[in-house]
Amino acid sequence: MAASTTTVASSGSARTVLLVLFLAACFHAAVPKAAGGDSSDLVAGHCANATRDFCHMHLTSKYCVSTLRSHTRSARAQTPRELALVAIDLARRGAAAADAKAAGALERKISEEDARSLRYCRSDYVAVARLAAMCRGLVEAYSPGDGMRMYYNVECATKLVHAATNCGHLARFVGAESEAALRKEFIDVARRTALVKAMVELMIGVEDPIEGFEDDFDYDA
């Protein structure tokens, strides 16, 4: 019994140490730039802060601003939390559109290999939708200073990025015609989930220096 108790205590201590190391690794104060009270300036200021770090090398402030402003709710957003929720909804919409495009491609006469890759992509987009709902709940429940929820928010956003980019990697193995028809959607979902991660990290004031984004995924193709 004593050995069991010691094991549990050690496990809890190790988890605490890992959390502290995670928070210390790439911490910055998420202080927005002066915005002058205009909502569009607030979006631009938050995007500038969210994309300024090396951890977000695949995002630009211009993309961040244009994507968030495509959702009418961004005009009323005042905080990174509100913009993170907007980004999550945009990612979910993008995944639904990409899934519909993949489903349409499966109705055409394509190779068995293409069909298999597209079915995997569809399962990835289902995962994006499910994770988006989970991430939304975590963002809504987050309270500044809550160490474990800081970790859970970043973990959820990271899983969201991985689910989206899985399909982008699979696209390299489908036929040229199928890839050309669907690549726009692959890239769009990957970028939208990357934006979610950037806004979540801005909300909690922590950059994730380890995960980053998929360095070998060609976002600019």
Automatic annotation (TrEMBL):
Signal peptide: 1-29
Gene3D superfamilies linked to this entry: Invertase/pectin methylesterase inhibitor family protein
Organism: Panicum virgatum (Blackwell switchgrass)
Pfam families hit by this protein: PMEI (PF04043)
Domain Pectinesterase inhibitor span(s) in chain numbering: 51-127
UniProt keyword annotations, A-Z: Signal
Entry protein name: Pectinesterase inhibitor domain-containing protein
Molecular function as annotated in GO: enzyme inhibitor activity
Keyword Signal: yes
Listed InterPro entries: Invertase/methylesterase_inhib (IPR035513), Pectinesterase_inhib_dom (IPR006501)
